[in-house]
Write a structure and sequence with these properties.
Blueprint (H helix, E strand, L loop, with lengths): L16 H16 L2 E9 L5 E9 L3 E6 L6 E5 L2 E6 L4 E6 L5 H4 L11 E9 L2 E8 L8 E7 L2 E9 L5 E11 L22
Amino acid sequence: MLPATLRAAPPPSPLKPADQALISQINSYLNSQSAITANFLQVADDGSTRTGKAWMERPGRMRFEYDPPDPQLLVSGGNALVYHDPALNQTTNIPLASTPLGILLAQHVALDSADSEIIKIDREPGEIDVTLARRGKETLGSLTLVFGANPLELRQWVVTDAQSRQTRVSLYDIAPSAPLPDSLFQYSISAPTNRRSQ
C-alpha cells in the first residue's frame, strides 16, 4: 500500500472525442464523491493479501487501517501521507502530491490536467481502465484506475513499482459519507484501530 517509485510509463496518445467525453464523466463522478467509506482488499505482487477499512475525504484526507493482526496504518490529514509500521517501529512521511492517491484526493479532481495526463484508456465489458502518469514525470511510471461501467464506480487501483511489482487495491462496500471527523485523519501511534462504526 505504501506508494513506491513507479516504473517507466508508455508515452500518452492523444485523446479521441469519445475518450474526452468519458474522462469528463469520470471527473464529474470523482468530484461528486467528497467523502466515502469502504472496505478494501490489497493484493501484493507475490499474491499475499491484506484487508481493512478505508476513509477518504477530499481534499487530501484519508485513513487506511488494516485488519488484525496487521498493525500498519496509513493516514493523511492534508499535505503529507504518514505510514506507520509498528513491527519495525518505523514511521515514514511522504508528500501526498507525490503519491498516486494525491490525484484522487485533490481539491478538484481532473485526470487530464496540469498535474496528470492520460496514458491510455481500456474498455472491457462492464469495466473501464484509465492509466495515468504525472505530467512531466512520465518516466517515473503510471497508476491505473479501474472503474465499473454501469453504474460508473471506482473499484480498484493498481500501482507498479520500479521492479515491475504490482500492488492492487480493490474497494468494496463503498458508501458516501457525511463530513468525517478531523480526529480520524490525525496520526497517533496509540490511535485505536478498526473503527468499523465510523
